[in-house]
Amino acid sequence: MVQLLLIAAIAATHMGRITGLADPWITGRWSWVAAWAPMAVLWLAFHVFAQRCGHRMDEQGDVYAAVRAERSMNAARFTGTAWHIVSVFIAPIPGLTTGSESWFTPVLSILPVLALFIGLWWSFHPLDLRVREATLRRRLEHTPVHPPLTRVQYVWFCVRHQLLLILLPYCLLSAWAGVSDALGDRMPAWTRFAGIGVVLIASPAVLRAAWDTVLIGPGSVRDRARRMLRQYGVHARGPYLWRTHGSMVNGAILGVFYPLRYLLLTDALLDRLDDRHLDGVLAHEVAHVKLRHLPWLAVSVIASVLVAGWGCALAGHTTGIPAEAAWFDGAASVVSLTAAGLTIGFVSRRFEWQADAFAARHLSIASGSAVITRDGAETMSDALQAVADLNGIPIARFSWRHGSIGTRQERLAGIVGIPCDRLPIDLAAKRLKAVALIALVSGLVPFWWV
To answer: What is the pLDDT of residue 52?
Structure first.
């Protein structure tokens, strides 16, 4: 959710600079108050609530107090981002959400949102520490225990792994845009676009460095990972140990193009999953690259924005709304952002289902079966359960991009006995890609007549 909200805040800021109200409701110094005061109130309210939840955990042993606090934190994030989106239209800050733009303006313009997110993590840390200390005895008996993070380390960890994922590429793109604007006509148009491509391709290398990773040396883990990459013709550097102080059970393949594509495995993942479950996680991550999920997600999002934009333009033309109406441009921007957000969730969840099925198929074929075996599906389901348990995620909790662990487990159970080459989710994914491609073409064609 953090990354999606951050993208929405950034996109709204840019749209506000282009289509903002000609006569804002709030101006001058009050625009700064309108931007910062609600964020301060949201943080203060959550801080008080988090302290009360901590007292309930200490005095009554109420473990669900931490869950309630986390839900409240998510609600505060959503509310703060929503207010930021509104404020860039009704109370734009001169020089930040309006006017000329320098390379550092993008970060300054969303600083209230960033400050809110960081403040919420600061207030949530004592609850996270209580939960980790409560499970310390159990972890001592089974797995290595990493030193607990201090408050500053915890906040910095969250910033690195949640905010920098979006901010680093965005700042690099903004810096390049500043260079391009400074050079003006002296820079050919193709150079501008080439620079954008270089930044996007190089961003994974920057993120890998920011996330504290180190190459895994010779051993069974490296051999298993590289063997699977070769088996499916996927090129990625690594595997790299993703050092998270034992706080995250996750695997990822970062990057679109080799050699700037990296396979990352967290320390907690290697500490707590056995070889067969590790194979399931590796196969799931390989599937995202093998099936080109990231490029097709981008196609789907671009198509949804284009279709939503043309739909709004058609609605405005039909109802006779003046083309120069700033409020309508703002409404169209919100519609486009909403369409993009809905598309990201819808498409991502189905790609996760397909990657899960791919992993179950890999495990089934490894046992010599031409159909999805119960053992293959259950092994992947158990891997998901282990990731949920070790990360403290209830299996019923819904994630916008991944859905719920429970739903994914149910879908895995439903493919047992189905031939490996005729999985329903593969057909559904092909249809989804076809619809995305048709929508993209449909959204681009009108430009020929405009």
So the answer is: 93
pLDDT in tens, 108-119: 788 899 999 999
Q: Which residues lie across from 112 on neighbouring strands? A: none
* Residue 39 to residue 436: CA distance in whole angstroms: 37
pLDDT at 78: 94
- Coil, strand or helix at 392: coil
Q: What residues does 401 pair with on adjacent strands?
A: none
Residues 428-436: contacts with CB under 8 Å, at least 24 apart:
428/350, 428/354, 429/291, 429/350, 429/351, 429/354, 432/296, 432/300, 432/347, 432/350, 433/296, 433/299, 436/296, 436/299, 436/300, 436/303, 436/347
**Residue 213 phi, psi (nearest 5):** -120, 155
What SS3 state is found at 320?
A: coil
Q: pLDDT class for 337, splitting at 50, 70, 90? A: confident
pLDDT digit string, tens, across residues 21-59:
555 666 667 778 888 999 999 999 999 999 999 998 888
Q: Residue 216 region, left (φ>0) first, then alpha (ψ -120 to 50), else beta?
A: beta
The pLDDT of 245-265, averaged and rounded, is 88
Structure tokens, 357: 């099925």
SS3 readout for 60-120: HCCCHHHHHHHHHHHHHHHHHHHHHHHHHHHCCCCCCCCCCCCCCHHHHHCHHHHHHHHHH
Residue 20 confidence (pLDDT) above 60:
no
Dihedral class, residue 26 (left if φ above 0, else alpha if ψ from -120 to 50, else beta):
beta
The span from the CA of 339 to the CA of 406, in Å, is: 26
Residues 228-234: contacts with CB within 8 Å, 24+ apart? 228/279, 228/282, 228/283, 228/286, 228/362, 229/263, 229/286, 232/286, 232/290, 233/290, 234/286, 234/289, 234/290
Distance CA 72, CA 88 (A): 24
Kind and range of the H or E run holding 389: helix 374-391
Report helix, strand or coil for 393: coil
Question: At the topology level of CATH, where does 212-272 sit?
Answer: Zincin-like (3.30.2010)
Rg (CA), the chain: 24
Q: Where are the domains of the chain?
A: 2-174+202-211, 212-272, 295-448
376 has pLDDT over 60? yes
pLDDT of residue 104: 58
213 exposed, middle or buried (CB, 10 Å; 0-12, 13-18, 19+)? buried
